[in-house]
Amino acid sequence: MEQKTFEIGRQESDVDLQQNKKIGNKWGVESKKVWHIAGPAILNAVSLFSLEFVTAAFAGRLGDLELAVVSEVHNVIAGFVYGVMLGMASALATLCGQAVGAGQFNMLGVYLQRSWLITGFTSLLLTPVFVFTSPILKLLRQDKDIAHLAGKYAIWIIPQMFAYALNFPMQKFLQSQSKVWFMAIISMGGLAIHVLLNWILVIKAGHGLFGAAIAGNISWWILNIAQLVYIISGYFPEAWTGFSCLAFKSLTNFVKLSLASAIMVCLELWYFTAVILMVGGLKNATVAVDAISICYFTTKPYMLTNWFGYDSLGLQLWTLTVAFGFTSSTSVRVSNELGAGNPKAAKFSVTVNVLTSAVIGLVFSAIILATRKEFPRLFTNEQHVIKETSKLGYILAAIIFLNGIQPVLLGVAVGAGWQLQVALISIGCYYGFGLPLGALLGYKFKFGVEGILSAMLAGSLLQTLFQLIIIARTSWHKQALQAEERVRSWGGKEENQETS
Fold first, then answer.
1. What does the alpha-carbon distance between residue 1 and residue 154 come to, in Å, rounded to a whole number?
2. Using CA atoms in the order 356, 358, 363, 368, what is the torsion angle rounded to 10 degrees?
3. Helix, strand or coil for residue 310?
4. 228-234: long-range contacts, CB 8 A cutoff, minimum separation 24
5. Residue 66: its pLDDT value, please?
């Protein structure tokens, strides 16, 4: 009897080991797929966001006013436009990703051209925002000196807005097909050129902010030209068959999906913009904006080595943009698997992406805590700005950890087509809860920058919890059926016949 019991226990143990081994193998396979996309996507995201960081770094050497101007323009004005453009283009991540999963490549080029038309027209509509930057900032009760100089700088960087209109749709086109290594290489090369141009135009030639603006314009358009040549040079024989009149058809439906994506992404990005504006209304606005801008830039991963005499590897400056790489991997994996009719694989990929990104976020949080008195020196030599920024270290570490999860959840929404649903959640959590709480803590109760950042953290936490609940309760089989219907309706027989 004891022998039989022992054999049964051993059999159960063997079954458990086999199951654990199977799960481990499954996790390993999915992790390879995730990192195949996330790795180069992280490099690409780091390089693109570092374009802003490099501009801010050189502007900071010009003075506190110049650093505040670059922060206001890029985080408020250009940030507004950036959110609209990125959101409009994010419709491609859903459509192209699910079409690739279903094996229907023939409409990808048409989708890309439709997106170009929409984002290009949107750029024209948004041009006045740059032209009237100075009165807009004054209306928002920003510092007059900052608003005046920001008005000039914003006009100088208008070409960057049109660069966004071309660049973001191409990124989604390439990401949906997992062609991300080329993007990473091009963006890293563009970053190197951007550093060189800033050094020449800002430092050597002494053109100040005007030189920084010209450097940014040139760098962005170099990226665009390189990606465009790659797409139309025959590397995508199925997905790109040339320019087509079909791009002008079905624009109404495409605009609706693009607007839903834009609303979701903009609400996410503008939340940080609103925080910048709230801080700009505090006393001693220049120091406050400088401090919050350093924290904001620190929540985007930038690599910084030996900058201007500082012998430091800025690992702590990578942070959030690393998680943005997982936004890409999550949206691609989820959309591809749903389009292919594999709901279980889509659900498992969400788990792998969330846990991996959360662990990385935890590591970055620990690094920020350990270096909270040192990392502000990478941006400024002003002791009063360094002191103000160092006080925000604990709050910043918590935000970084949370932001290791949020971008992945955003990727789930894009891959599954939940843009409008997530937008409604963001409205309530960010704008109905976080910002009003920030106004109370920052102004009413006199907690200043720390109060505003704490409220931002609370709003982000609430939004994350709601999204996790939705994902936990999702029927992925139903999502796969919806993806099948979306592919059928967006790449139906009529359009397929015209493209064949």
1. 84
2. 150
3. strand
4. 228/166, 228/170, 230/182, 230/186, 231/112, 231/170, 231/173, 231/174
5. 85
What is the C-alpha to C-alpha distance for residues 331 and 60, in angstroms, rounded to an integer? Answer: 36
Q: Which amino acid is at 285?
A: A
Structure tokens at 218: 């040139």
Mean pLDDT for back-to-back runs of 10 residues, the chain (500 residues): 53 61 81 90 85 85 84 80 84 89 88 92 93 88 84 93 93 91 93 94 89 94 95 90 83 82 82 75 63 52 28 41 81 93 92 89 82 70 70 78 85 90 93 94 85 89 94 93 84 48
- CA 65 – CA 286 distance, rounded (Å): 7
Alpha carbon 402 to its chain's center: 15
DSSP letter for 205, please. Answer: S
E strand or H helix at 458: helix 448-472
- Locate the DSSP E strands across 165-309: 305-307
Rounded Cα–Cα distance for residues 413 and 419 (Å): 6
- The structure tokens listed for 165 are 């209109």
If you ran DSSP here, which 8-state letter would residue 203 be given?
I
Phi, psi values for residue 157, rounded to 5°? -100, 15
- Residue 326 near residue 356 (C-beta atoms within 8 A): yes
Token pair 């068959």 in the structure block, residue: 241
CB 49 within 8 A of CB 321: yes
Rounded to an integer, what is the distance from CA 19 to the centroid of its chain? 37
Distance, in Å, from the CA atom of 420 to the CA atom of 86, rounded to the nearest integer, reads 15
Angle 143-149-151 (CA atoms, 0-180°, nearest 5)?
Answer: 95
Residue 284: strand, helix, or coil: coil
Q: How many CB atoms lie under 10 A from the CB of residue 57?
A: 24
Distance separating alpha carbons of residues 155 and 132, to the nearest angstrom: 9
pLDDT at 255: 85
Say how many C-beta atoms besides its own lie within 10 A of residue 253's C-beta. Answer: 12
For position 16, what pLDDT does the model report?
59
In terms of Cα–Cα distance, which of 368, 207, 383 is closest to 300?
Answer: 368
Residue 373 tokens, joined: 């008195």
The backbone torsions φ and ψ at residue 305, rounded to the nearest 5 degrees and listed phi first, read -130, 125
Which DSSP string corresponds to 403-429? TTTHHHHHHHHHHHT-HHHHHHHHIII
